[in-house]
Design goal:
Blueprint: H1 2-22, H2 26-54, H3 56-80, H4 82-97, H5 99-110, H6 113-168, H7 181-193, H8 204-208, H9 211-232
Helix pairs in contact: 1-3, 1-6, 2-3, 2-4, 2-5, 3-4, 3-5, 3-6, 5-6
Protein name: Major facilitator superfamily (MFS) profile domain-containing protein
Transmembrane segments: 27-47, 59-78, 84-107, 119-141, 147-167
GO molecular function: phosphate transmembrane transporter activity
Length: 233
């Protein structure tokens, strides 16, 4: 999750020199920044279902491969055309949109109930740490290897992480060759205790009737607006 957000932040920093280099207007910068969300909204709604069907390992691996590719292609796309750039950023959003729902289905399989909140907290902490690390590191890296080199650097980190993920992680601990029997029994016992009989997914109407849902929406709108306004200043 750290790398997921770090790759996202690179564009937030690089968009300033990119805009100066290509003569983008403020309104187009806003379109470029929001294009990530066009793909993100769609894939975040189906990411969990994909992970349930194909397994968290495969879905997260595919997502990381795609968002790393999109990261690498971003400066090239910017030099080609506005349409190409927006297409690459939408692809980036589609790839990153599955990360949160995939982790939401992945973590319960690997952690018993009493450890689950800690696992989620560490995952979210890594996500926000990526924000901090990337904001600090991107300008420094950019000053040494340039715009294209910076995007290539973060893309290469994605593929390095991907190789480790594919070699060492399984969607379900039952399929793992490295987990101990005692640890597996602990996870499975915690998993069985947390099952709820007769539970079903809420409808969209029920979801949007909750104040908590609207609080999250408003908070994200304000957060994104502040980021965009800050970049304009």
């Amino acid at each position: 999750m750290l790398l997921c957000n770090a790759d996202r932040v690179v564009m937030s920093v690089a968009v300033v020199p990119l805009a100066a280099q290509h003569g983008w207007s403020s309104s187009f910068v806003g379109i470029v920044q929001s294009s990530f969300l066009w793909g993100y909204v769609f894939s975040s709604m189906v990411g969990g279902a994909l992970a349930d069907r194909y397994g968290g390992k495969k879905v997260m691996a595919g997502a990381a491969a795609l968002w790393s590719l999109a990261t690498f292609l971003t400066p090239w796309a910017a030099s080609q055309s506005a349409t190409m750039l927006l297409a690459v950023r939408v692809l980036f959003g589609i790839a990153e949109g599955v990360a949160f729902p995939t982790m939401s289905t992945f973590l319960p399989k690997w952690f018993p109930t009493h450890e689950r909140a800690t696992a989620v907290g560490l995952s979210m902490g890594g996500f926000h740490l990526g924000n901090v690390v990337s904001f600090l590191a991107t300008p420094i890296i950019m000053s040494h290897i340039g715009l294209a080199g910076t995007f290539a650097f973060f893309a290469s980190l994605g593929y390095l992480w991907l190789s480790v993920w594919l070699l060492n992680v399984e969607s379900d601990p039952i399929d793992s060759r490295t987990i101990s029997k005692s640890e597996l029994q602990l996870i499975l016992a915690g998993r069985s205790k947390s099952k709820v009989k007769g539970s079903k997914s809420p409808s969209l109407r029920e979801v949007f009737s909750k104040m908590e849902m609207w609080a999250i929406i408003v908070a994200n709108v304000i957060n994104n607006w502040v980021r965009m306004a800050d970049q304009q200043n």
